[in-house]
Amino acid sequence: MKSILFALWLLPSALLAQGYQKPPKAVLDVLDAPPPPTVIFSPARDRMLLVQGVRYPSIADLAAPMLRLAGSRINPQTSGPHAPAKIVGLTIKNVADGKETAMQLPKDLSVSSPSWSPDEQRIAFLATGAKGIELWLADAKTGKSKALPHLTVNAAYGQSYQWIWSTGSLLVRAVPEDRGKMPNRSPVPAGPDVQENIGKTAPTRTFQDLLQDESDDRLFEYFMTSQLIIVSPNGAQRRIGKKGMYASADVSPDGNYVLVDRTVPPFSRLLPAGGFAHEIELLWIDAGKVETLASLPNEEGVPLDGVPTGIRSIGWSPDAPSTLVWVEALDGGDPKRKVDHRDKVMMRDVPIGAARELALARNRYAGISWTEKHGVGLLTEYERERQRRQTYLMDFNQPAGAPKLLWDLDMRDRYSDPGQPVATRLTNGEYALINQDGRLLLRGEGAGPTGSHPFLQWYDLSSGKTEQVWRCGGGNYETVAEYLPDSGQYVTRKESQSEPPNYYLHDASGVKALTAFKDPTPQIRGIAKQLVTYKRSDGVQCSFTLYLPSGYKQGTRLPTVIWAYPLEYTDTSTAGQVSGSTDRFTTMAGISPLFFLMNGYAVLYDVTIPIVGDPETVNDTFIEQLVSSAKAAIDKADEMGVTDPNRVGVMGHSYGAFMTVNLLAHCDLFKAGIAQSGAYNRTLTPFGFQSERRTLWQAPDMYMKVSPFMYADKIKAPLLMFHGEMDNNPGTFPIQSERLFQAIKGHGGTVRLVMLPYESHGYSARESVEHVLWERLHWFDRYVKGTEAANPDGR
Hints:
By secondary structure, this protein is mainly β. It is built from ten helices and 47 strands. The protein has an eight-stranded mixed beta sheet with strand order 40-41-43-42-44-45-46-47, sandwiched between helices. Strands 12-13-14-15-16-17-18 form a seven-stranded antiparallel beta sheet, covered by helices on one side. Strands 27, 30, 31, 34 and 35 form a five-stranded antiparallel beta sheet that branches. A hairpin with a 4-residue loop joins β36 (477-484) and β37 (489-495). α5 (622-639) packs across α6 (655-666). The chain is globular, with a radius of gyration of 27 Å.
């Protein structure tokens, strides 16, 4: 296990302490606050399942056994995900009368993945113990629960169970009874691991947790193999199909078939499991018949930003008993190839129908959303060249009819977003868009220059006219959580700066509160925030949310923290759009930068860093636009009289960390920086990064220019870096931080690297969270605020 790295001569003795450290008690009190319950509505929307989770696992949870196999991280002792989210409470609450029924949860087992049965009589959930995963059923009336006997769930690969709405049965992926012992990983290799490529162009992104050798292959096949089992309402169990590595298994709306995507060898050393060779099959539940629909090779060689050829995105049509819909590429999957149409949409009725073409997509297919009206749906395309999204109304009963363009939007355009169509659950358990008399129901964020004002409105498919049902007013932030189509009622989730989120029922008689969740952290209610807009030197509109600590006195200039994440835009109008709402309830959790407010800092949160330009070359001016955006934000906060421009620190996570180190390398605006889980040498991500389309060999000067590693000798402001030792995010390998630390140290810079044991791209363990907050507060207190320089050992 790697240890925390530091430059001994730079740090006061208190910072050299070993082991996990804790931030001040005021911070710990906020961390101790329980998270609010999440809500899962019943199929009829007449009851709510309140799910009480655990916000922070312990480092002991993260230290549980782990296998990293083809993009998955599993616990070999349980055949389930490593360190799954935990639930400590399940409570059913009636919408009508507010009556609550607590579910009895098994002791000494970790509960997760709850779901309603189709008839609302039962709640299913997984219960993980030291030796495996059980499927439990709780009675929704009494709360009593019990495990399904003689069944060990395999949750290592894909969805572990699914309700079958037509019968009330369950489709479960089980550990095969004859699986045997786990293969041994021999310390003595049988020979070298060999890969080769003979003349085939096969660029790949930088993935992590890939299979490395034949031992990994055997372990992958061992743990990902499941037996599909049908569990009837009376508890009877029967196998269907053969054992296999099922990436997905989806029951048809009529309950007669299972569409499966089965991974097959040989496996790839360059791709996670989603890119492995696979077979798409149709299983007859009762007859035991199997039909192979497609055998598809691995996706090595698929063009960057492209798609594989052959069947993809296959699934059941929700408004038919058993009709399959899928898409196939017409351009070889290559987004740079010039063609009239990129994709075709296909359909086939099961069991005896022939495949037929439904529609052609000029741009890349991005999905179909079906409406309640049979055969009528919305086809969405993605136009790569202009970064736009088109949505068409299509009647698939008449495929020869011309599609009707409903919306053609810039991917980043928040202000023009018409909202998302609201779906309802059909009697067969499938979801379809509400379509009443040719009108769709849309809900959206309602983004505008003053922030978000969510809405609910009808959209007439013929005229394009809208009719507002509801819109969030000022002083609070309220969104539509559920809509009840039979009654026209809807449920909203409402919050304000001073009121925590709660749920409300809206009907003809008025508004009724459904929940009364309390403020978990009343001690931070004095924090003030406001939306601030301004322009950078080239005229691009920018914004940030200004947070000021409790008790702030007007006119006081504070040390300031900037938190940001760069985003790319094709034009200045969308780049300047405001997002979010200052009327939301202020919360602090995890490693939020808002914890600096409790130590006397101002925080400029979500500072917009727009990188504007042609999608093909936008990063050519990344550095210039980055520095200009940062300067504009500091100038605005200085103008407002809240920031001391000589005491500003910058921080970010992932691409925000990349931003942070580039700012320290290319300007002198900041006293110090904090970079978390970033990538700093772009030659290590040579086939593109973020939205960059060019490879290192196509744009070598740009790759070098935007890599702060190449400017390590110019980084003079103190830099604190964090990285999870088990980071699984593509591109942000831990070596990125290790090598930058060595480069800055080698040039005499002030730098500290904290490697977090067992942590991934984000940091989750309570001990890790506490330590990160402790490190960050001390770092900025010393190098931004300046208080620790006078009293370095006073802790």
